[in-house]
Design a protein that fits this description.
Helix 3 packs across helix 7 and helix 4 runs antiparallel to helix 5. The chain is mostly helical. It contains 9 helices and no strands.
């Protein structure tokens, strides 16, 4: 028993499955405010557009229902994991979370059995849509230069196949937003598998 605890403490325990990792990520997003979601969507859009422009992601994969072969997307997944770890090492938590959102989007698009989790993730992220424009404007002001034009034209796009279910009524969404706005900004848990 003690040996098993030591193994897990030092990262030698059983690795979490993609489903478990994405599920924990969705739970973390759920604990964040709508405004936090807006910032995450804004940063994720900047990361996605930059990676597409640098050919690390297929261009237009959010709107394209015909994705590259799984082996190509697997390489993209590895690249995104490296980007997320890099941001985490630099202490850029928001950038790391946004990179993980893009990473998990690709993972969910790549595996049909993960699509429901992808929809759950984008249901949470979509709560931030009313705050994305302001977050992008604040980001440009902080950076001191404009983001690529594609960022401004594509931030509203949801990945094809991972759109939140339309069954959630606007009244449910509004009541969730009110309860979410009372929450304090969440601190993001340290990843144990990166």
């Amino acid at each position: 028993m003690f040996l098993e605890q030591l193994k897990q403490a030092f990262g030698f325990g059983p690795r979490a499955t993609a489903e478990e990792e994405i599920g924990r990520f969705v739970d973390g997003l759920h604990s964040m405010t709508d405004e936090d979601m807006g910032i995450i969507v804004a940063v994720a859009t900047v990361i996605r557009v930059n990676l597409e422009d640098q050919n690390h992601l297929p261009k237009g994969f959010f709107e394209n229902s015909k994705l590259p072969p799984p082996q190509v997307l697997s390489k993209n997944i590895l690249d995104l994991a490296k980007v997320a770890r890099h941001f985490e090492r630099l202490g850029q938590t928001t950038d790391a979370i946004a990179a993980i959102a893009v990473l998990n989007t690709v993972r969910c698009l790549n595996a049909a059995e993960l699509r429901d989790l992808g929809r759950a993730m984008w249901t949470e992220l979509a709560r931030g849509m009313p705050f994305v424009e302001r977050a992008l404007g604040d980001g440009e002001a902080k950076k001191g230069e404009p983001f690529p034009k594609r960022v401004w034209s594509e931030w509203k796009k949801l990945p094809a196949g991972l759109e939140p279910p339309k069954s959630q009524s606007k009244s449910q969404s509004k009541s969730q937003s009110k309860s979410q706005s009372k929450r304090k900004a969440a601190t993001w848990p340290k990843s144990t598998n990166t």
